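Sample entry (284 residues):
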Amino acid sequence: MENIFPALVCPARWGKLMVCTDGSDEGQNAVAAALELARACDSQVIAVQAVHVVPEFQAVAPDLPATLGKAVRENMAVIKAAAGKLGVALQTLVPEGQTPHAAILAAAEKIRPDLIIMGRCGKTALARILMGNVTARVIGNSPINVLVVPRGGMVGFQRLLVALDGSAYSQAALELALAMAKQAKSRLIGVAVAPEEGDIIEAQAIIRRMLSAASLAGVPMKGVNPQGVAPDTGIVQQAIKHEVDLIIVGSYGRTGLKKLLMGSVTERVIGGSPCPVLVVKHPG
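Predicted structure, serialized as tokens:
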């Protein structure tokens, strides 16, 4: 596994990282990101790859579980070798029988990592390991923050973007962004989108509160208020414009949804972002 990431400054106390892969390019990229982050933060890494076979496929291909199990073991051997080269402490976990998202959630409950790292999407092969669906389900149901790494995405912390909508979860995202920016000496962009004309006053008030919080924390911040665009569009456009390394968002918005749903702002940001997205699960 090739080292494709520049040297990182650890931005948070992430002593235990759990990275999930299915062997796809995005999954392996997430593993590479996790190993580099672990090296910077002196973290332990637990690599998880679930083995799940749809019963209908097993009925017509009895050897499929053994074939998939062999592929997973070979992939874990590659990951172990990469961790060894970087001097990163690594454990592997290969849960069987459960659907991938259920296996990941069960592992997270047992391991209690400080951060879960996943690819944005993955294989759509016989085992139906759909990382796009799996990632959304993990984010929606895990109490732990999730870092989503797209294919080719490189983890970095020099330029951070945090998006707020006034919800408790976005406030938690701001608090984490400020702490990370202070630790890593990052440039920080604060975004509050006003989709309609009637939203402008409130969005601008959110920006003022963000700037005030940043000032109190001793963190320089630039506030940006995109108008007349959908929230996810405005966030992604600003991320591209300012060439940020990471977007930080809350998992739930002002709708008060109990879980991440397809079509939500957070999921659309994850789907459209060219850089990794850190989804904050803890309300302030």
